[in-house]
Amino acid sequence: MFKRVLIANRGEIAVRVMRACRDLGIETVAVYSDLDIDAVHTRYADQAFNVGPAPAAQSYLVVENILDAAKRSGAEAVHPGYGFLAENAAFAQAVIDAGLTWVGPAPAVIDGMGDKMAARKAAMEANVPTVPGTKDPVTEAEEVRIFSKEHGFPVAIKASAGGGGKGFRVVADESEIEDALTGAAREAENYFSNPEVYVERYLERPRHIEIQVLGDANGNVISFPERDCSLQRRHQKLVEESPSPALKPEVRTRIMDAAKRLAENIGYQNAGTCEFLLDSDHESFYFLEMNTRLQVEHPVTELVSGIDLVIAQLRVAAGEDIGFTQDDIKLNGHAIECRINAENAAKNFMPAPGHIGSYREPAGPGVRVDSGVEPDYTVPQAYDPMIAKLVTYGADREQARRRMLRALAEYEVEGISTTIPFHRLMLADEHFVSGDYHTGTVERELDLAPLKETPKPKPKPGEPMVAERDFTVEVSGKRFRVKAREQLDARVQRKKPRPPKKLGSAVGGSGENLTAPMQGTIVKVSVKKGDRVKIGDTIFVLEAMKMENSILSHADGTVEELKVEAGHSVETGAVLAVIR
What we know:
The protein is built from 15 helices and 35 strands. It has 580 residues and is of the alpha+beta class. The chain has 4 domains: 4-103, Rossmann fold (3-Layer(aba) Sandwich), CATH 3.40.50.20; 132-201, ATP-grasp fold, A domain (Dna Ligase, domain 1), CATH 3.30.1490; 208-451, 2-Layer Sandwich (D-amino Acid Aminotransferase, Chain A, domain 1); 505-579, CATH 2.40.50.100. α12 (397-410) packs antiparallel against α13 (420-428). The longest helix has 17 residues, at 249-265.
């Protein structure tokens, strides 16, 4: 076993891997950016090395700096976590060339399965069903039209080298093809340095089912019972559970066998995940892609199988056998994971970085929290919005669900908006309670209105405002919560009503100025000076915390001035355009 391992990542996954290392008596090495000098993962490690400025492109994605840290620390192996360089074949090869052990599959396998079209071909060769799609990249709108005429709408345009919902657009009719194609290619280039996209039939109301696989150097491959990751928003997973409430035992066996067969055919080593779409008949399934790394949602598999997947990764990377057989994998109980993101679900899941004041994690029977934050911590805008994963385990699904509701009620994060209110709503909603949900449930069927703050009645101009405050008092030994109202001598400034927001969109501004509702980078300008626009028209596309958001016009008028262009970084409140 290794004496020392470098974790080429940050946040909760870096801490998760470090904990597994400590369980095995392995020393840990962290890498950090200037922004993460005092981060939880930086201080948790036995050693920590600065790898560059705040932007990931100048720190966590700089291979030379990470390898230099490994050399200086005396690390023997590198664990990539997920995201950043985890599925970068060139990085894996550089680690191996430096005389270190790569905790993951071979670079050639990463390269082959990282290209979705190559992965589809590998699945076909292993006799695993795939969704109908183009065999080669598409670059022209006409190619998408031809495919759509054959297979019908909707269709999906997807990044060949993508994952995590990036470079993914759903096209409902012919009028959307041009924008979807250019948008998917642009996002694919930004995130994966590869603009290639392809088209496939888009299944309506499917379940997103994935199978964990684990292989060793001796050709042994194990597949695990499924994770259901169907509750998504903008193709980003929000809630995962194992087992799926929709999967029959015989279908489970077939899909586990399919994943194992594919992994064996490509000589897969270490941990990976085969993702499938389960059709609405709950019988037919299709291979979607393979993630050649550890998944965010791996804890639910660990809880229902009793296997520590990170420890298994380290042992396999060190040359050991898996240590157990397929017959040893039993499905016990039920696990649910909620991703705790710094996002405001009431505002279309708008990224909400900022400073955390008090912070208290839930505890008790059947509760696990994988976290990368703490009290008095600032969630940066530069990285992914996920700050923690809350996982509960029960003897059955209902016990796991009730424990999750209890844990969500105990979870306190002061100072920023998080997805905790959304999860409370989701776990109590009939769609989840019954298990009758699919990949479009959150966006098309779930009523998010309860998450919106109820506006208080506004006083008439000139009337005093009233502030409400909560107090805790004790009377005769009994505790009471009291609401007090205080009259403030202030005048109310009336604002224009804002237009309804679109999915993945945001509005900011008043008067003539359109302002940035959040920090981020302008990736597209959709109008020109002199254009006439209406309320709700897209003016800019802004990327924040790895998500693209359309910035919509707050008023009808003419674009008199554009203050920014593509590539500009902006702060919250910055004036982007003047509309008169």
